[in-house]
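User: Watch each token:
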Amino acid sequence: MKRYLADQGFRYIRGKRYHPMTQGKIERYHRSMKNILLLDNYYCPQDLTAQIAAFVKHYHHRRYHESLDNVIPADLYHGRAAAILEQREKTKRKTINRRRAKYRKAIAMRNTVS
């Protein structure tokens, strides 16, 4: 396994067993999944499998991650994150400029009425 990962450009690192601080991201992922799965009762393994698949799909393709600058993992994986963040910045600038213009217009109107 270690050799295969090295061939793929990955480093194989072992964390300390039973120590969530060294396994933080995966432990957080498992906690999120557990919190969702425990909300319901499953009467057959297929129901549980389907719910896990739905959670994984939602987690990777719908849920924004704060640690990823509020983009979804699929966007980051497919290289769309930079374009999304750039578009958000443009929208933010545009909104700020629009609000400033509206504010200045309101102040000018107030000054002409006085």
